[in-house]
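Lab meeting tomorrow. Look over both lines:
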Amino acid sequence: MLRQTSKCMKNILVPFDGSGFSQKAFEKALEIAEKFSSQIIVLTVLQSKVSDSAGISLKRLQEIQEEEENEALAILKKLEDQASAKNISLSMKIIHNPSSSDGIVAFAANNNIDLIIMGSQGKTGLKKIVLGSVASGVLAHTKCSVLITKGTE
């Protein structure tokens, strides 16, 4: 049974926004990947700032986008050591999408993702909401399995 299950978990996607909730999801992904020799793909979705861009030049918008990508990459690089210590294959992706949940769902569909592991809330979620809007959107629209981890910020 475990061998069959491991084939189903070859590619694990972890949406990561730097929150404690996403860190907990990453730790769960490490645990599962170690058991099933899975590959982890950590995904950060940067939401487009185009709607906030009135009066900003295209050049400045590109600079802002690069700054955001560099900040996200610095956060993601810290995860490499954790995966490396457990000898787990890790790749990192940064995409731009006005909707985090749509970006995650599209990425999963286009990249043969078998399992998405994500936190119950993230930086965009309100503490009063039991399940964040991004997690709800992913659950509602993805075709692969989703594991939601609970944790505190």
